[in-house]
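Following up on my earlier thread - several people asked me to post the actual chain instead of describing it. Fair enough. Here it is, all 201 residues.
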Amino acid sequence: MTTRGTVYLAGDLVFRPGAIAIFDHLRALCDAAGVTGLAPFDGQAGIEALPQGLETTLKIVRADRDLMDRCDGGIFCIDPFRRSADMDPGTAVEIGYMMAQGKPLAGYTTDGRLYPEKVRAYCRAAWGDDLRPRTTHDAPVGSGAVEDCDGILAHSDGMLQNGMVEGFIRLSGGGIAVHDDFYEAFRLAITDLASRLRVRA
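Reply from S.P.:
Thanks for posting it. Predicted structure:
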């Protein structure tokens, strides 16, 4: 008898309107791929009734950590968050946590622009500035050729997100599925992750 793998469903999805319905759809896609998807909400029973504040937030953090500990792998939405170039920082932490556990990871996004292009678009929209050829060379960083108006490197050339984020997913054996349709991007990623979990079983 084959045991179904369990997969942690991570991303900024918990903050989006209609989050519960989104996770229900993702769970169904997981089921079709032969794995069980667990959303952060699945480990937070009773927490929603507590008053907002530091202690409640820490309970959520502990619950999410405990849920990640129970899962065999993780799948992460790396879409830009709050109109910025970067993804949700909490999800980035979760990628690092699960990578450190040696678990298979996968990512997906509806935004196929490379990371420096996301930074360029954000700088233009937020500040009316553009990126420029790198002029600051006092640090041995070779992951980018352009910088912003503050001289901060727009790094991670060739990647869709920060190099540590996408790099950890790739070092786990996974990749980033890209599709204009959110659920199709997820389906592509979960199909790949499910096949890798079956090999490990």
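The mean pLDDT is 92. That should answer part of your original question.
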